[in-house]
Specification:
4 helices, 10-stranded mixed beta sheet, 256 residues, single chain, Udp N-acetylglucosamine O-acyltransferase, Domain 2, alpha/beta, 2 domains, 9-stranded parallel beta sheet, UDP N-Acetylglucosamine Acyltransferase, domain 1, 27 strands
Length: 256
Amino acid sequence: MRHATALIHPNAKLADDVEVGAYSIIGEHVEIDAGTVIGPHVVVEGHTLIGKNNRIFQFNSVGAIPQDKKYAGEPTRLEIGDNNTIREFCTLNTGTVQDAGVTRIGNDNWIMAYVHVAHDCQIGSHTIMANGATLGGHVHVGDWVFLGGLSGVHQFVRIGAHAMTGFQTRLAQDLPPYVTAADNPAVAHGINSEGLKRRGFSSDSIMAIKRAYKTLYRSGLSLEDAKVAIQSQLAENKDLQLLVDFLAATTRGIIR
């Protein structure tokens, strides 16, 4: 269950059935809940909380200090939920006191090799981050988001639920819910209709979301006028509330 070569600090709190592979290092302020498997050559450090039934593969850096020159040793945190898969060579950093002080990853996420999650990122649940996806600091990612391989997300960008990026997308502004983006810089390419079908969205909901997308991207309206028009469409389908709320809260502007 715990390899003889693993170094586990005596103050670390691990559930009885947590597995730790060869040559892995578990730091003093780490807590790991039941059913989680830590592979070989993994470093888990900092004030890091890992939930249940996660699988963290070899050669990951989990809970290292943020890559931020302002960081001065504060006890900021990394929190990882349940049922996540984290493949090889990922780097997941703790937060900073300039934000909430915690980097969070939700539940049931599939994080592929070489993904970087920087300080203060807030990742929802059921996301997929393909190989080499990179999140700058303070990025917020909603539930059910798919980030294509080698996608790069600028710091402070927000990505709405059910959105998707293509291979090598460069995202420097907010990506609204349901929207598919690709290219460098990112350009909107319709809605993530296939993903919505897989998640059980009705045909009526998908049609309403397509209409809202056309209002936002194809009508020629200004962003403010498009917000008003989509607000008026909300009475037809409640799934547009996600889009309305996101557009109301954006501060960086959206890809458009």
